[in-house]
Amino acid sequence: MNAGSSVGLIPVIVTQVEDVSPGVRLLRLSPEDGHYLPGFSGGSHITVGIDLDGDIHLRNAYSLMSSPYDTSHYEIAVRRMDSGRGGSRFMHRLREGDRLGVSSPVNLFPIQIHGKLHIFVAGGIGITPLFPQLEELERAGAAFEAHVSCRTSEDATLAHRLSGRFGSNINIRYTSETGRQDFAAILSRRPLGSHVYICGPSAMIADVRSTARALGWSNSHVHYEQFVEQKTGKAFDLKLARSGLTLRVPAQVSPLEVLEANGISIPYLCRGGACGQCETRILQSDCGIEHNDVWLSESVKACNSHFMPCISRADGGVLVIDL
Amino acid sequence: MLITGIKSRPVYDRLTPFPEALLHLVVGQGSGGTAMSRLIAEIAPGADIEVMYSTESFTGQNHLAALKDAAPGRFDWFASNAALSQALHDRLSQAFMGTRLYLAGSESFIGLAMKVARQFDLNADEVLREHCGSLVRRVWCVHCDTYSENITQRVFSCSGCGKPLVVRDHYSRLMGAFMGVQGDAEVPGELPEASELDT
Ligand code: FES
Q1: ipTM value of the model?
Q2: CA–CA separation, B56 and A106 (whole Å)
Q3: Rounded to two decimals, what is the model's pTM?
Q4: CA distance A120 to A196
Q5: Which of B20, B21, B96 minimises the CB distance to A191?
């Protein structure tokens, strides 16, 4: 394995590979030293170091779907994306015995344990965090229900596993046969103190959020997690003013991933331009900046004084940053 | 109101309508009545409004008649804050998402009502609290778990266990009150000087 992407990561071995539905593969990752991996709570994700040909080092985020009460291994589900940067295609080529590096888990999608009722709305691969989340709720004796959308029954293997595990609290809907879920029916007249968790494609997240708002749900009871797909752009040079280093950022790699591959760690959480952790000052640029984040204000974006290296990039040329 | 150097003391709001609410639950006590009437007048006509009022008051303020007139829908009143908080609990357990709660009254009353609201996981974007009336403290005895209301003196004797309590400047959100700790625990009989509380 190339050193690049695994700098600072925990070494793991792929110990089980299972294709569960068309284009979706489960991977079991066990610690190389045979001990335990860091503990986590339901809703956490890890980032996985990915080495592609041509010295390209990516890090993709995947929700953990294994039990939070058994950290002898992690389990993740990867949906193959035939367009895109190639990270998921790499993950689909892995075999048992292959080695990888993973980050410690981060939870940006935790259960609100004081809630009275926990309602999950999930679609597609978004179902994965529900496994540990529902297990936590079950242990706590909390009330929950999940509404899972699958395109066809072929795509429903994970949903069936979830309902096999958690029974009648899981409601599965085949959208190609019966159309999409009626979100208003799911969210109307629910007991005070309910929480809704949305895990699915961005259109589903937007729909459920606006339905909840229209029904008077306050923001503090509506939770969602969105993994943004990294956009590919143009290659450019990233110059670090403090160390004088210049790093090449390839078209399909984010500046954050390039920094990490070179052993330079900066704070991050969401890797999707939402949390603000990675905010960095721009000192000089001879190029345009593509601000793909939702964190910086429009006025900051307009004057190009700061940018978010997890998701934003320059469109060629040299970008000098305060690192 | 209640501007002090006590960091743990809640920062209160001014009651203004939550426009997105499906049900406005307007709840208050004593001198809170004025804030309640003012709020009701600001809520868009036709909205679902329910009012709950307790006439228990340290300073004798009673806005019952005015509120009865102002309330467009269901109106319930209670002779004590304890009865009101029980009724609030019963009402919230029947309520749905989309409910917004407004509290107006003394700090004791707001602390009591917030303890109920917290059982239903109501957050700052669903509850507003306006402090009205006198600047007295509600104190929770760490020794016997009793609440003493309307405390104005730094040292007082606990209404539960009778121990001489010193009122700390620490407001516990969990208990909804200031903490009271036995003042002469180290040397019996040796108490800090009696003084008026900074309320
Ligand atoms: S890591 Fe969250 S905004 Fe960059």
Answers
A1: 0.84
A2: 49
A3: 0.86
A4: 6
A5: B96
